[in-house]
Structure formats: structure tokens, C-alpha cells
Amino acid sequence: MNKLLHGTCYYPELWPESEIPRDIAEMKKLGLNMVRIGEFTWSKMEPDEGRVSVDFFVRVLDQLHAAGIGVVYCTPTPTPPVWLTHGHPDRCFVDAEGRVMSHGARQHASYEHPVVRAACLRIVETLASAVGRHPAIIAWQIDNEFKCHVGEDFNPHAVAHWHRWLEARFGTIEKLNDAWGTEIWSERYQRFDQVPAPVRTPFLHNASLSTAYRMFCRESIAEFMDAQCAVIRRHSDKPITHNTVTFFSVNQERLFANLDFASFDDYPPRDNWPAIVFDNDLCRPAKPGRAHWFMETSVAHNGWFGNHEVTHPPGFLAAEAVVSFGLGAQAINYWLWRQQRTGCELPHSAILSTWFKPSVGYTAVEAVEAARRQLEPLMLASKPAVAEAAVTWSDLGRAMLQTEPLGGRPGYEVDFNKVVAQWHGLLLEAGIHRDVRFEGAALDGLKLLITPVMPFVSPDFLKKVEKFVRAGGVWICAPTTGTRGAEHTVPTDAGLGLVDAFAGVETVFSFPITGTGSTGKAFGLTAPVAGWCSALRPATSDTRVLGTLKSEQAPGLAFLTERRIGQGAVVVLGALPDGKTGAKLLAKLVAHYAKQAGVTLRFDATPGTVVCPRATADGETLWVVVNLNGKGGRVRVPKGATDALTGKKLPAGPLKLARYGWRVVWI
After folding, report:
1. Would you call 152 a catalytic residue per the annotation?
2. What is the dihedral of CA 102, 105, 108, 109, to 10 degrees?
């Protein structure tokens, strides 16, 4: 990292070419030093099949480079031109209802169709060979928001690929039948090509099949991205990313595996500010040692035909940017430069109106640029501190919960993203610096690990956790974790699979406890319990019961246990405390085990005020403190603290922040 980047998504192809100099002049006036271009330009480059020219975009790159503005160039594969799919419905995406998508929006083509995939790779090859060494380009982005509007693809070519994927995975159909238990309902298959994709059926498909198809489709889209990366790397040495969103139908960990750095998009309204922190906390450890980028956000409000968000209050955008820079982001980038005059996103905010006047968000962008200039030397001289606490992100777990949202009844489902965000929020509210780490990530630096909603706990994951615990770490195995097998079956050896023996518990009952009137008592509090419950009893003499159920279904059984192993502990939470008292109980649980694990990166700040700890190469400590809830706040600073921007000494004690205010402090 040699600078902080501040930019916008730019669509010169939508406006007269003569206006490009005016755009660039206005960008320079604002201080923007990057733009992202190209993701929707295939028809501009190849209006007719085989008639390709990138001359227009070379002229754009030349002008941007002359102005000192770096370019993130996107491959244009999310919006194939009409000639590729018109009259060829076989080349289009098919959903689970059998509906064939049509040209007119984006992501309508099936990347599984060999003609579509070949055309995609040809246009990427043409683009990369033409501009791959252009000095304006600072990075590449593959496609745009994979699976933003679609989920699993059921095009016949996708289904044929599914059969090949299954054969490569299982080897023989007998192994698949055994793993999935296909004797149920006479599902047993004789050949791989008989295994259906989970399209409409009178009731429901086997859970094993449905989850496997999700994982197959997510692997396939990652392979499509890998193929594009390979083409670009033949022609360019610039780093490559993809702008992901956590609730799209992709495998986040797999998607990032072959990228050079992580980036994300987020358009949170004011009341969902924790999402900004969450996304930074997930992308920061995704590619260790590489800064991540905040690739898309709105300057004032999100908007499309079906919805528009509430406009940001003054100060919100700057707070969003500062906390992202503090948490390790190198770039913040807006969608978009100039308001769309056509299309389906007419209500979306932009830096400039269609009539080329400052928008309601223009002054907010000016405030971000002023903050960027102040922060840049401090951010370049430091790195985010290594988190001591983390929440596990499991892509297989997410797929399983999408197949089987445990709870069943409307209002009682378990949503993976929401539950992981809830646990992340508990660490955030406790003032604990935290990561969101992928299931396959190393546990380096951690002292406390919370693993919620990960139904399958693999031997590899548990081996890693055991080493972590024996060295002094605390692992909290939160509700539903361990309740399913690798192929989305129910364990037959123990209720929580391998976790039972490791945690020294016996899972006596496994059932939905919401609505039964059951309560749990722990840490001196009694709260309702909800969700899917694993009612426990100790199975070893060194397992302690810390929380007991009062329940007609499981009277006197445990819902919270602890077992010391080596220098650390494994904690099983079998049911989720609910309501206001449940929130207090969970806060006590987190505080207790953070202290027991020896977590030191914890800050005394008011709710809605976030501390981003950073460290310099020579051991100095820097705090970036931001108020994100718009209520103002304070943080307690120790003796000897100094305002990093003014050099003024700060008294020990509460340091106040205004509404959406921020401070940078040397400790």
C-alpha cells in the first residue's frame, strides 16, 4: 500500500465522448484518484460477434492516466450482448422453477454453456491483450457481483456439469448412495446422470442433494472466475479482485482463494452501520498481508425501481470511510459518478446529477476526501492490529442452513448471515477488536473463537481447534454447530458429531425449543431460550455445567457447558438465550470468556463508537475511533495519549466524539 484510494464507478460509454475531459476535471477537483470502469461494456467493445474494438476505452485510459487517476478495469462478462443470447434460449440461465432468463438486465446468460463461456474468455483475452500493460491500470476486477440476481443455475449444461462433478467427487454411484442415504423414498440411483438437480418436485429433495448442488454451483462460478484470472495474468501483472457481497450465492472462501486481494460492496442505511464493520472484518483476514478494498457504496442512498433507502445524514459517509480505512481498507469507491439517465436504477444516488450538477452527496464526498488526506500518512505508517477474537464463517454451513433453515416455521428459521452477524455484534458491543475468519483459515493470534451455525464440524477443523485450545484458547461452540454430517445428514454416533467427545458432553435431545416456554439459567440470569436446542449432560468428570434448562421437554439438562483442555477451554452453548435478558446473558458469556482467554484488545467505548487499533513497525499503537450510530459517543483513553492529527496531549479518561465524529489517537 502506497496510498489510500478514493474513487468512483465511471461509465463514459453512456455519455458523449466529448464530456470525458469535463468528468476528469471534476474528479480532480474532488481529489478522486481512482475510477472503476468496464463491467457493463461488452456491447460497446463487440457490437456484433467478431467485430471487436477497444479503441474508445484506450482513449479513456489515456486521459485518466494523464490526469493521474488510476483505473480498476473490470471484465465485462456480467452483461453479454444481445447477439450472444437472442434466438439462443439454450444459452440462458435457468432457475429452479425452469424459467429461462432473457436479455435485458444482467447475469441472464449461463456461464455453464460452452458457447457462452468461450465468448466470455475471448472478450477477456481481447481486453487484457489490448490494455493489460496500460499504465493507467492499477487493478482488475473479475465480472461484477457474482450471483447478485440469480442463484443456482439449472441450464442443461449446468446439470451435465453437475453429473461430472459428482462422479469426480464420489468415484462410484454406490459411494454417493451410501453417503446420501438414498434408500429413503426409493431415491437410489444407478448412474450419475440419473441424479437430478434440485428443481421443482412434489415435496422436497434430499438435503444431501440440495446442499451439494449449492456447493457445486458455487465451485463452478469460482472456476469461471479462475479461468478469467488466468487469461488476465498472461497479459498483466496488476492485482486481481472480485467485489463480493456476503448474501449472494457464492462460496466466499473459495472465491477469494485465487484472487490477489479481497473487496466487497455494501450499501448500508444509517441504522445498519454494523454491516460496514462486519464486511471489513471479514475481508481483512481473507487475504492475510493484503489490504482489502471497499469497492462499492452509495454517496447518499441506494435505489432501484423496487426500493430506495433513506438518504444518509450529514457525516455518515465520512464515518463509513474512516472506519473502513481504520480497519484495513485501502480504497473506498462509490457507485456511481453520474446519475443514470436510463435503465432500472434511476433513483440511485450519484456524485453528480444527470444534468452534471453536484448531488445531495457531493459535499459528503468532499468530507471523505478531506479525511483521506489527513489519514493517509498515518494509515501508511501502520497496519491493523491482529485480532484476538473471531467468529467463524463457514460456507458449507451457510449452504446447509439455506437448504434446512432449522426451525421450519415462518419467523423461526435460522438465517446464517444474521446469526453470524449477531455474534460478531456481541464482540463489537463488548469493544473487542475482532475478525470474521473463514472455516479454513489459520487461528494465528486468536485467543477466543466463536463458531455459530456450522452444522458440520470436520476432523480437520476440530484438529485445528484442539491445538488452539490446548495452547490456551477458548472455543465457544454455539448453537447448531456439529448437528449435521459432511453430506448434510444427521450424525449417528453422537448428537454433535465429533464435538460431543471433544467437549465431554452427551447430547441427550435435539429439538426446536422456540415457543415451548423453556428458559435457561446461567451467569445469574434466567432468559427464554430459542432456536434449535441441543440439550446436554456431562460425559466426563472434568465437564462443568454452567447453564441449566427449565423445560418441559428437557428438564434439568444443560444448555451451557465448559471443559478445560490443556491451557484453554471448550464451551458448548446448546440453545440461544433470547429477548432482552438473553442479550444480557450473551453479553456476560462473551465478557467472561474474553477475560478468561486473556483478550487485551478491548476498549471502553459507548455503543455505536468503534475503535480500530493499529500498530506501527516500531511498536507504536494508533487508534482510529469513529462514531457510527449518529448519537455521538466517547472512548476512554489511557494516560499519555496524543491526538495524532494535532499533536495535542489528551487527558486520561473519556474522549468525546461528535455525531459521526472521528479521532485518531497515538497511545
Report:
1. no
2. 100
